[in-house]
Amino acid sequence: MTTKSKVIVITGASSGIGEATAKLLAKKGHRLVLGARREKKLQEITDSINSDGSQSIYAPVDVTDLKSVQSLADLALKQYGRIDVWMNNAGLMPHSEFIKGRVDDWNRMIDVNLRGVLYGINSALPTMRKQKAGQFINVASVAAHSVHPGGGVYSATKAGVWMISEALRQEEAAAGSNVRVTVVSPGAIATELVNHVTDPDQKKAMNAYYDQFASSPQRVASAILSAVDLPADTAINEIVLRPTRQG
Ligand code: NDP
């Protein structure tokens, strides 16, 4: 453990960007607290992280449940006594056109992508205020900045994450709390995200799109590492990164 070792909580850590970020940050000496619904996956990831002497723990978490998210924060405090970084990463992207009426998908996106982020902020901010230090890393998307047919609800949730993050940044700056806020807005990254698209037409189109050039979650993790390791008096407020060939 380095003297700069931070306690970092990551939601949606059972695959993709969350998993890659957990593994990289642990390798760099940070202590990880991982949450997601798939406990077996979390167990495998923490076993792999801890096998080389790095430190990580996990708990099953559903970010749509306020108590469940709070319990993840409580676990971090019980185990490590502080929360330096909270990464609101859990998310899903079941695109569909409005005419398909996939109301369940709309609600899941609102619950996970938007409510989940608010619950994360609610669970960690009081601790960061007390510490007079901390950082939120909120995973939005390039879809926070643009929209296309089928992506209306997803873009709305991700634009919401952007707005929530910017308001939080301004509030914490005004309070002098030293709490940093970083939005991460990736383009196409090869993860399990497309697997959960329920509309067959969208799934086919997205698989074809991602197959052209999707980048790896490890690239996103490297960018996040730079935002975490930056000295505390400066914040990277947004990282927008795309595969170079993505239009
Ligand atoms: P993955 O599907 O690989 O990861 C999503 C993670 O979210 C999983 O660990 C999943 O775990 C978790 N999750 C989903 N629902 C819940 C829930 N209710 N409670 C807790 N955890 C949940 O995709 P990515 O790694 O790509 O996605 C990570 C983030 O990146 C998302 O916010 C996504 O919108 C964003 N993003 C991804 C892009 C891409 O191209 N891949 C582009 C732009 C943004 P479990 O099922 O175990 O609960």
Automatic annotation (TrEMBL):
Entry annotated with the keyword Kinase: no
Gene3D superfamilies noted in UniProt: NAD(P)-binding Rossmann-like Domain
Keywords tagged on the record: Oxidoreductase
GO molecular function, one term: 3-oxoacyl-[acyl-carrier-protein] reductase (NADPH) activity
EC numbers for this chain: 1.1.1.100
One Pfam family hit: adh_short
Coiled coil segments of this chain: none
InterPro entries (alphabetical): NAD(P)-bd_dom_sf (IPR036291), Sc_DH/Rdtase_CS (IPR020904), SDR_fam (IPR002347)
SUPFAM superfamilies membership: NAD(P)-binding Rossmann-fold domains
Domain of life from the UniProt record: Bacteria
Family: Belongs to the short-chain dehydrogenases/reductases (SDR) family.
Name of protein: Oxidoreductase, short chain dehydrogenase/reductase family protein
Organism name: Lentilactobacillus hilgardii (strain ATCC 8290 / DSM 20176 / CCUG 30140 / JCM 1155 / KCTC 3500 / NBRC 15886 / NCIMB 8040 / NRRL B-1843 / 9)
